[in-house]
Amino acid sequence: AGSGPVPRRAGPTWKQFLSAQAHSILAADFVHVDTILLRRVYALIIIEHGTRRAHLAGITAHPDGAWTTQAARNFLMDTGQRAISARFLMRDRAGQFTDAFDAVFAAASIRILLSPPQAPQANAICERLIGTLRRELLDRLLILSEHHLRQVLTEYLQHYNTARPHRALRQL
Fold first, then answer.
1. Is 43 strand, coil or helix?
2. Burial level of 16, CB count in 10 A (0-12/13-18/19+)?
3. How many CB atoms lie within 10 A of CB 103?
4. pTM for the full model?
5. Residue 120: what pLDDT?
6. Could you tell me which of 109, 33, 106 has the C-alpha nearest to residue 69?
């Protein structure tokens, strides 16, 4: 047809960007758990890409925008300098992540990266962690309440962060 090939992008690919910026990226997502009383409880999980260190930012039965914003404030206060070294936060487009949530991270000079609609692969590390939580923990236990879920997740994330090897980190 007389037209040449489509020009290549000048910038890096998404995989190259994630690899180069891994130590400055946080990712956030919700995991939902149904208790034995058929109550749905949500946990906000935040993971550091470079170290695969996972954090439980909070647990609630009603994750509205105000709660999520407060959980973000608490997370930044608890992690202190480690979170300040982050430059990006990847999240999906869930309604719980409001402008106020983004403003908390923007105040700490952390840019928000939104994943494309219906593309969980764009936030793959956080989605993988949630899958690991389901396979290794939540599918094997009956959760009684929010309090029980907090105890179980806190203990498991302690194991995940200190004893569990990570293949992407050469089994460290």
1. strand
2. exposed
3. 13
4. 0.85
5. 83
6. 106
- Interior/surface letters 26-64, b for 16+ CB within 10 angstroms, e for the rest: bbbbbbebebeeeeebbbbbbbbbeebbbbbbbbbeebe
Separation of CA 5 from chain center: 38
Of how many residues is the chain composed?
172
The one-digit pLDDT tens for each residue of the chain (172 residues) are 677 776 766 778 777 777 777 788 999 999 999 999 999 999 999 999 888 899 999 999 999 999 999 999 999 998 876 666 889 999 999 999 999 999 999 999 999 999 988 888 888 889 999 999 999 999 999 999 999 999 999 999 999 998 877 666 565 5
Q: Is 107 helix (H, G, I), strand (E, B) or coil?
A: helix
- Crossing angle between the packed helical segments 124-133 and 146-162, to the nearest 10 degrees: 120
Report the SS3 class of residue 51. Answer: coil
Residue 147 tokens read as 């309090």
Mark 131-169 as b/e (b = at least 16 C-beta within 10 Å).
eebeeebbeeeebeebebbeebbeebbeebeeeeeeeee
CA atoms within 13 A on the CB side of 149: 27
Amino acid identity of residue 34, one-letter, is D
